[in-house]
Amino acid sequence: MPSLSQAAAWLASSERVVVLTGAGMSAESGVPTFRGLDGLWRNYNPLDLATPAAFAANPTLVWEWYDWRRSLVAATRPHAGHLALAQLELLGHQVTVITQNVDGLHHRAGSHHVIEIHGSLWRMICTGCQQLQLNRQPRLRTLPPLCADCGKMLRPGVVWFGENLPPLAWEASLEATREAALLLVIGTSGTVYPAADLVPLARQNGARIIEINPDDTPLSALADLTLRGAAGDLLPKLLQ
Ligand code: OAD
Asked: pLDDT value at position 1?
């Protein structure tokens, strides 16, 4: 495949690589995407489950949904594509993974510089004392969970619709993107902002852009090259 060898050549000559990932990156691990045929937003209404108003109205329902997603993700493993991205660091590239995914699979695969711009399923934030807590228990004992320190309710440590991204994570993402020689855009529909803004930003700053996705997206037009296929199949081939 000539485009694969072109992509491999660009990758080999790029020291600073930024990887922007979305739900499609985790699809082959068995984590559902949001907008595909079996996507979560086809079966659930984000307004009932992923907004501050939904949490205020029914925290138990929102927690039940996140508890279900935590148990689902806990049973999965990183796939060959996640491992290939971690290996890229070992080949001497300076790699920053900016992920919209909340599943933690990039960390589990061994990537060292992962920015979780939409938060993490394994983090919780106290609605009272604002303390950040890490919790990897797949099924929580009581829903909603309460803060061990102040007794107030904990909320999932994810970004909901209508909320700002964590400022430090977003600043770090902008900085890494501005300095990137190559941006790999993998498994995202490119419809959620500000995450999708990173692609034109990379382009303005002279980075080459490679998209990996089985389908066309609004970001495809900005890519120098598109590899049509699955991340778990194409990433190991790209590294080879
Ligand atoms: P989407 O579900 O919108 O898009 C998933 C993308 O992955 C689609 O473009 C698919 O074609 C592609 N895809 C599917 N399988 C793939 C595979 N095996 N390899 C590569 N690509 C594949 O997911 P996101 O773009 O991540 O936000 O959605 C962005 C945000 O919208 C999420 O972070 C979430 C959601 O609402 C929040 O919850 C704040």
From this structure: 58
Report the alpha-carbon distance of residue 203 to residue 56 in Å, rounded. Answer: 40
Active site residue 118: yes
Distance in angstroms (rounded) separating the CA atoms of residues 36 and 149: 41
100 lines ligand 1 (CB under 6 A): yes
Three-state SS at 23: helix
Ligand 1 pocket check for 178: Cβ under 6 Å? no
Closest CA to 52 of 180, 162, 130, 143: 162
- pLDDT exceeding 90 applies to what percent of the chain? 93
Q: What is the pTM of this model?
A: 0.97
210 neighbors 235 (Cβ within 8 angstroms)? no
Cα(33) to ligand 1 centroid in Å equals 5
Q: Is the CB of 50 under 6 A from ligand 1?
A: yes
- The predicted-structure confidence for 83-123, as pLDDT tens digits, reads as follows 999 999 999 999 999 999 999 999 999 999 999 999 999 99
In angstroms, what is the span from residue 151 Cα to ligand 1's centroid? 36
Strand-pairing partners, residue 185, are 20, 211
Nearest Cα to 103, choosing from 87, 124, 92, 118?
Answer: 118
Ligand 1 center to residue 25 CA distance, Å?
Answer: 8
What is the structure's pLDDT at 2?
A: 77
